Amino acid sequence: MDTPAGKNLVGAFHNPAAVVIDPAVLGTLPLDVLRSGLAEMLKHGVIADASYFDRILQFLPAFAALGAAAPGFAPLIAGSVHIKADVVAEDTREGGLRQILNFGHTIAHAIEKVQRYDMLHGDAVAMGMVTEARLAEQIGLAPAGLATAVRDAVARAGLPTQLPAGVSVDAVIAETHGDKKARSGAARYALPRGIGEMEPAEGRWAVPVADDLVRAALLEQIPRSA
């Protein structure tokens, strides 16, 4: 559950009997809402499967033209479900590996809170992935070029690559300290080593990053005036 303190801070673990998705229902969604779902699909590619990530990129032109009716959408949805299901099956109670599903979400949840949740979750995740990919480069986990690859994919999906205009970087950083992965008030991040590979951090799957580095990464995503 979401609380006044932040997103996803209260909950219980309960496995479903089945996952049922009717892609035809997606055609009833506004395009911006449908597009926001692509952020989580791209995330699954970054955290677990480079070939899946590439398949999404190949699919994006058809999606831009046809939306939910684009050929190949259903198999990609199934691929996303399988990636998440495999991670959850290995770490049901989020003690380790399952934290990789939070790539992009430490920053995303903080932005949503600062913006009073007046934005689509997928848009926030897109911004979060771009920022956190840059963090991975800054601390030496990922080679130069990862953040550009993530940013380009996000842009090709029609998702935002920059923070909301006027957002307070300091306020976003303050909110990361209340993230569910934080320890002793210090934010931790699930970060990629590259497309399809995450940093295991000795089984913790989340690493601390100094606020000054987070601030620098966020400032890179501030919209510039013309």
Brief descriptors of the model:
Dehydroquinate synthase-like, alpha domain; two-stranded antiparallel sheet; mainly alpha; 226 residues
What does this structure look like?
By secondary structure, the chain is mainly α. It has helices at 23-26, 31-48, 50-66, 73-90, 105-114, 121-138, 146-156, 169-176, 211-220, and strands at residues 188-189, 192-194, 197-198, 207-208. A two-stranded antiparallel ribbon has the order 1-4. A two-stranded antiparallel ribbon has the order 2-3. α2 packs across α4 (73-90), α2 packs parallel to α6 and α5 (105-114) packs across α6 (121-138).
Amount of beta strand: under 5%
The CATH first-level class comes to: Mainly Alpha
Q: Which regions contain 5 or more consecutive residues with pLDDT less than 50?
A: none
Radius of gyration: 17 Å
Number of strands: 4
Q: What is the overall number of helices?
A: 9
The secondary-structure element order is HHHHHHHHEEEEH
* Outline: globular
Give a quick account of the main beta sheet: strands, pairing sense, barrel closure: 2 strands, antiparallel
Structural class label: mainly alpha
Distance between the termini: 40 Å
CATH topology: Dehydroquinate synthase-like, alpha domain
Instruction: Supply the CATH superfamily name.
Output: Dehydroquinate synthase-like - alpha domain
